[in-house]
């Protein structure tokens, strides 16, 4: 047998062995970090009608707050279930403290096998428990890659809510079609999401490959029950006199 042919079989055998030793994570806990560009969000809310007081509030905000607001969350996952949970943080005070575009309001349990979710949403003074089908996202997978929390991830792009541009990075080394908040539907776990025009992103900072308990995947139960359409109708009615801000808030609560 010629040497090149022997070398081919040796390399093929080595590659096959390496592939067989690849560890695919199907249970674990992911820690996410959300970053919101507060300076950009505040500037977007300024116009000729509110500039007189908004500029003063913005200048005061910049003196005592960084440009990026950082929030933490976790995603517990098994082969067919995920639970996204914001890490409780001290409520920000001040003019922009409770803006829905900069806060994490949702605890979301997703049954991937049934394509359904249960979301506990904190909206101003009310708690809602929304049960419905998961959102279908038409992803376009690209060739771009980047490393996130030690995993090589591939980029995918999509549009949600008719106008929100989404950039996501997923890894097929975690063969669970989940992700932070309500982002899912790719052939692997989403470890990074950026909404460039909304000035917010979620990126994994650590991944623990371990069994998860039933308690760690327990769906929320507290809140006024309704489906997604019912919630949107309720928010529309509550914000009908809020002008342009109503659309901004509605989009934030819908994500």
Q: What does the model show?
A:
Helices cover 24% and strands 37% of the residues. The chain has 255 residues and is an alpha+beta fold. The chain has a single domain (27-254), classed as outer membrane lipoprotein receptor (LolB), chain A (Clam), CATH 2.50.20. The chain has a twelve-stranded mixed sheet. It is globular. The termini are far apart.
Radius of gyration: 22 Å
Largest sheet: 12 strands, mixed
Residue ranges: pLDDT <50 for 5 or more in a row? 5-21
> Beta-strand percentage?
35-45%
User: What form results from the Cα inertia axes?
Assistant: globular
Strand order of the largest sheet: 7-8-9-10-11-1-2-3-4-5-6-12
Instruction: Write down the overall mean pLDDT.
Output: 88
Number of domains: 1
Number of strands: 12
Per DSSP, the total helix count is 5
**Distance linking N and C termini:** 62 Å
CATH C-level: Mainly Beta
What is the CATH architecture annotation?
A: Clam
Question: Helical percent range?
Answer: 10-25%
Strand pairing plus helix content: what structural class? alpha+beta
CATH topology name, in short, is outer membrane lipoprotein receptor (LolB), chain A
Order of helices and strands: HEHHEEEEEEEEEEEHH
